[in-house]
Amino acid sequence: MQMGHTLPNIAKDIDCTSYRIPLGVTAGICPFNFPAMIPLWMFPLATVAGNTMILKPSEKDPGAALMLAELARQAGLPDGVLNIIHGQHQAVDFICDDPAIRAISFVGSDQAGTYIYRRGTQNGKRVQSNMGAKNHGVVMPDANKENALNQLIGAAFGAAGQRCMALTTAVFVGESKNWIPDLVEKARKLKVNAGHEPGTDIGPVISKDSKKRIHDIIDKSYKEGAKVLLDGREIVVEKYKNGNFVGPTVISEVKPDMTCYKEEIFGPALVILCVDTLNDAIDLINNNPYGNGTAIFTTNGATARKFTHDIDVGQVGINVPIPVPLPMFSFTGSRGSFLGDTNFYGQNGFNFYTQLKTVTSQWRSEDATPEAIQTSFPRM
């Protein structure tokens, strides 16, 4: 992946070669929701490219990063190549300000991501910042009903909705709105419990503050005129009465100016909007500031093609609810979901952790040293 390009004889006796070299010291700042996966987006590529990395896991669940660092050490990664630091604002400012650090990878909230991008770039650093999202799932009337509803439920409520690629907004087109009662019944059957308990579908959210914020958005939705078809605020898990649980919530008759649509809820809540046509759905999504991911459920290839070409979102799923690319591609969130010019992992990720060097050399043909044939042993 470090291979560059060579063009010989661009002029008489002159060759030009480019190749990629490491930046030096890099840094990663990780969120709480994927404490193993997100570090694995960062330090393997950074170190394979020849850099060292300072990794700051979330203060809410730092253990996974430490375990990964220990596994890397056991696998032979030299001491000092991967370094774990802990903390909150002071640790972030250190990463943004220290002149030795050349590049910063960040995944997390809009507020933190914007701050890190601005402060890091003002200090001359390369920054890639994956931030918030409002991912829409468009349901066409010709979709496979059972598959579409099951995919929506899994993508909206999996991980308790705490993932930047959660499909949090369902857009029912035309007559597909008649499927909403069936979706609600499917959501109602989901089991809320501690994540390690058998049969659990929805675990707790990360903190009491997060639970309160989700409750507040649901309450505000009702006051703004939406209809709460399934309300998870009163859920009680008997074995864990003090847990941060929110039950599956479905909010319908949502309008684009409502809080539940404008803000990323980051909890097990699905908001529903209904539109008349595919063009209306496309316009709705393109007018939303975020561009992380979207999906369409349809059995019509022409519909899928039109959606793919007209939608202004970085990652698109066709009957795939969470279109996160595999590592040979790159995570290509766009617009309000990403700040920077080089995306995570894949070739883009490798490019982020390296820089191009170009060498132009001249070796004149007339300077080549002529040598006579020598049949004896070489002499000094």
Overview of the structural elements:
- There is one protein chain.
- The chain is an alpha/beta fold and about 375 residues long.
- It has eleven helices and 18 strands.
- The chain has helices spanning about 35-50, 65-75, 90-95, 110-120, 145-155, 180-190, 210-225, 260, 280-285, 300-310, 345-350; strands at about 5-10, 15-20, 25-30, 50-55, 80-85, 100-105, 125-130, 135-140, 170-175, 225-230, 250, 270-275, 290, 295, 315-320, 335, 340, 355-360.
- The strands form four sheets. The protein has a seven-stranded mixed sheet, sandwiched between helices. Strands 5-4-3-6-7-17 form a six-stranded mixed sheet, with helices on both faces.
- Helix 3 (about 90-95) runs parallel beside helix 4.
- The two termini are about 40 Å apart.
Topology:
Blueprint: E1 5-11, E2 14-22, E3 25-29, H1 37-48, E4 52-56, H2 63-74, E5 82-84, H3 89-97, E6 101-107, H4 110-122, E7 126-130, E8 136-139, H5 145-157, E9 169-173, H6 180-188, H7 208-223, E10 227-230, E11 249-252, H8 259-262, E12 269-275, H9 278-287, E13 290-291, E14 294-297, H10 301-310, E15 316-318, E16 334-335, E17 338-339, H11 346-352, E18 354-362
Parallel strand pairs: 3-4, 3-6, 4-5, 6-7, 8-9, 8-14, 9-12, 11-12, 14-15
Antiparallel strand pairs: 1-2, 2-18, 7-17, 10-11, 13-16
